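seq as requested:
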Amino acid sequence: MNRTQRPSTATSAAVKRPPLYTPEQRVRRDNSVWTLIQGILAPVQFLVFIVSAVLVLRFLATGEGLFAASISVVVKTLVLYTIMVTGAIWEKVVFGQYLFAPAFFWEDVFSFLVLALHTAYLVALFTGALAPREQMLLALAAYATYVINAAQFIWKLRLARLDEAARRAQTPMQGAAA
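struct tokens:
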């Protein structure tokens, strides 16, 4: 087989996985106000993260702007706590449990690392346990885990869209026979 030939579909078939949502869960997801809330909070959190990351990096590079960088990390952490609480409520509505639903188990596990690092930052800030530079480095570590966790959730959103496209492709068009 040369480089332009594709292997047969029998050898290149995708690994089968269960859909992310059952039909009932999909209905609950689509009808829940918490889905909209998560859809609003996620990009807000990302924007807060971008602004804060710039302020933290500015402080680390120049030594200036500690107050602004510190406030931005506190705001980012509060938005994170908000999205975690509302996300747990969303999981309860859609999956019947507050956290660690099988479809989002590993995302939830990693979310706790994200929360732990953000909380450690707050402890360091309010107790003075770390010097300002070390506080900002801790914030960057928290932000690195946030980026990984956000990528996990974006991947799940992509899988949900692929599942929906596959479901629509398998379902005959309603009303076509009428």
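DSSP finds six helices and no strands in the chain.
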